[in-house]
Amino acid sequence: MTHPLVRQPGVIPLWLWNGTEPGVTSWFQPIVDLRDGEIIGYEVLSRGQGSLESPHELFTHARTSGYTWELERACWTSALRSISRFPEELRQAPFFFNVSPDVLSDPRFGDGSTLELLELHGLGPRHLVLEITEKAVIEDGALLQRLTRECSAQGFGLALDDFGAGHSGLVTLVHCLPRFIKLDQALVRDIHLHDYRQHLVKSLVAFASSVDAILIAEGVETWEEMTVLLRLGIRHAQGYLLARPSPQPKRPSESFETRRREAMRALLLREHADDTTVGGLVIRRTTVESSTSLDEVKKHFHDAPQVDHVVMMDGARPKSLVTRRGLASSAQGHVPLELPLIVEDQMAVTALVELAMSRATEAVYDPVVVTDAQGVFLGTVTMKQVLLRASELAARHEMK
């Protein structure tokens, strides 16, 4: 048989269609605005049957079997049927649909059948955001630009998915000009332990703001990740911490909402003072337990050439500092511990400059360790950061 929505002749396998029923089911995961807890949309996730339940296995099997387009139609049909049955307030979401570049460039995507499928279920392009994955991009930039412009002209929203996962994300970004940029979970995972990632995400936050794009962190699973992401300026997120995918769209739990409000309240208090205090400069750096051996510390520096220092911890509190410079000049057999300058995050930047520059000559430019009022480690700031911010504040004062 040939299903009416499938253009390829021949027998369609049961894992794709069983009569008029698609062989996939649709699940929905909320994307949340962390400022107010409101849901800005739902990502649509597809599940297959049996050994093909996993999305990765399902789409890999379709690609190797030559059924990528047919699977895409099955996924869309399943999702749109589900959405059409939701209450009116839920149908306005919008819904984020993953679209692979080979499907987007397939002539059948733009021949009117996609719009017909939407209309059949009482929906239109304004209800959908097309997520173009960065893991498999269209090599022809001009083609990508033309296709995405056509989608935008029809009313579809555009998102760049998995940003940071592939080698050509920036090229894809400038060609498709997405309204949403979704950070790949590889950047998000354990971000509180990786200062390099934090610097990158902080830069992306500034970029997204300058082009009026919404940056979404995917795969958020822990409060440690969430706290650092909030500090860096991320305001939209999805992941297991917020809510797991489900057949019916759900809001995050009350327990999450309570902690979200607490986190945002603390952040807003900090942001109010961050303009002139150390807290706004903090980056969470690499930490190790105070019992870590010399060989293990050396391995940390060897494995991460960009790391300039690590903080030795006693539980949640900073104990000492190890710099790459100090390690290189140390005697054999022991970790070259340095007693760092430790300040609270509410200290004024100008006060820190005076305090830091009064240190011994060899330590003047060492990083400064920052804690909260309870002495819990937040991160460190470099003297370059401190001096630059002090210069900015001085220039601002002169302009008044």
UniProtKB/TrEMBL annotation:
CDD domains recorded: EAL
Ranges in a coiled coil: none
One Pfam entry name: EAL
Domain spans labelled EAL: 5-259
PROSITE patterns hit by this protein: EAL
SUPFAM superfamilies reported for this sequence: EAL domain-like
PANTHER family for the chain: CYCLIC DI-GMP PHOSPHODIESTERASE PDEF (PTHR33121), SIGNALING PROTEIN (PTHR33121:SF76)
Protein's name in the database: EAL domain-containing protein
